[in-house]
Each structure stands twice: as C-alpha cells, then as structure tokens.
Design goal:
The complex is a heterodimer. By secondary structure, chain A is an all-beta fold. Chain A has no helices and eleven strands. In chain A, 0% of the residues lie in helices and 52% in strands. Chain A is globular, with a radius of gyration of 13 Å. The relative contact order of chain B is 0.34. In chain B, strands 2, 4, 5, 9, 10 and 11 form a six-stranded mixed β-sheet that branches. In chain B, strands 1-3-8-7-6 form a five-stranded antiparallel β-sheet, with no helix packed on it. The chains are: A mainly beta, B mainly beta.
C-alpha cells in the first residue's frame, strides 16, 4: 500500500513557540492532504484539507492563523502550530490521497506536548 | 450532525470467534465506504473498502457487508485473533471528496 511519513513523531515545546510538522507521501503523488487531530479516546477530527498549490480549506472552529498549512508540492504538506499553548497538546495525523483514489493513506502521527 | 455512526464504543470477543463491527450512515450520496484499523499512538491503517454498487467485499479474514436500503455496513473478522485488538473506524466518502469518519469501536480479542 501507499506510504505516508510524518516528522517528527513527537515533539515537546515551550508555550509560545511554533512547531512545524511535515507530512510526506513516499511512493505516490498526493494531490490532496488532510490534517487531523485526535484527543485521547476520541475520534479523528478533521482540521483542514489542502490541495497542492492552493490554500487549505479549514473546518469550522479551526483557526487558520493558528494552524498554518502549506502544500507546496505533490509529496509534502506542512502543519505549523503557531504560538503553541498547552491546550494544543494533542496527536496530529496527516493523510494523503491522489486524484482518483478514494482511499486516504495515513501517516503515523505526531504527538505534540506543549509545556 | 454525525453522518457516520458507530454506536458501539467497544466490543469484546473470544479468540477464534467472529467479530462484527457495525456502522450506520445517513447520507445516501456516499458512494464509497472504508474501514481503518488504529493502534494507540499510531496513524490509522487502511483495512478494506467497498463501493456502493456492491454489497460484499472479502479480503482474507475480513469481509465488509453493505446494506444500502438500511444505510448500514458491517465489518466481519473471522477468526478473530488477539492482534486484531485495536480501534476500528468506519468511513464514508462521496466522489472521493471529503471522508467522514465514525467515532470508532474498540475491539478486544481475548486469548
């Protein structure tokens, strides 16, 4: 199956700093990438959808200035959590899909802890 | 508005027996359904899918059944193995657009 990687796998940062998470599709072109957030014992919450070369579409309630998404190439999308606060601590997961694929392939996730 | 519902938060099954995970949906425009498996602290892994033009798809120990009139699908795992213990997410999509996920069902397979 298609492989999606995320980096870093976990990060600890101080409150007020910004954190960048990378999502890469390793063996296919990802025309669309999705960013999810998962709180403990809860389902995946879609944060935003990004298409290569265009601005991301954010879900209701997700601050686009807080969670900056860049999808500059067909294999890379980045999520930057700006001025992170403890309530941003969560498990962030990306997924990727190529045009014509109904199946999304997920990355392994990034655990963020903001102190 | 939950368009995809997994009403059982957890399920416990004896090793070797059948596990049946259920999923209901409300949007009749969904044309593709997927099941994902997720271990703690990992991303979901694609398991099996079914198109709305079919009513059954089988892959090894995993079978997905789709009942369009009831807007219901189920995942059957037989025989269940301890390694199947994980959270299973049902998902649905329309024309490959946004994928809607259910809340997940945690499966425990007891040895």
């Amino acid at each position: 199956g298609a492989v999606v990687s995320q980096h870093p796998s976990w990060v600890i940062c101080k409150s007020g700093t910004s954190v960048k998470i990378e999502c890469r599709s390793l063996d296919f072109q990802a025309t669309t990438m999705f960013w999810y957030r998962q709180f403990p014992k809860q389902s995946l919450m879609l944060m935003a959808t990004s298409n290569e070369g265009s601005k991301a579409t954010y879900e209701q309630g997700v601050e686009k200035d807080k969670f900056l998404i860049n999808h500059a190439s067909l294999t890379l999308s980045t999520l930057t959590v700006t001025s992170a606060h403890p309530e941003d601590s969560s498990f962030y997961i990306c997924s990727a899909r190529n045009t014509g694929m109904e199946t999304q392939y997920f990355g392994p996730g990034t655990r963020l802890l903001v102190l | 508005d939950q368009q995809v519902k997994q009403n059982s938060p957890s399920l416990s099954v004896q090793e070797g027996r059948i596990s049946i995970l259920n999923c209901d949906y409300t949007n009749s425009m969904f044309d593709y359904f997927l099941w994902y498996k997720k271990y703690p602290a990992e991303g979901p892994t694609f398991l099996i899918s079914i198109s709305s033009i079919k009513d059954k798809n089988e892959d090894g120990r995993f079978t997905v059944f789709l009942n369009k009139s009831a807007k219901h699908l189920s995942l059957h795992i037989v025989p269940s193995q301890p390694g199947d213990s994980a959270v299973y997410f049902c998902a649905a999509t329309t024309g490959g657009f946004k994928t809607i996920f259910g809340a997940g069902t945690r499966l425990f397979v007891k040895a």
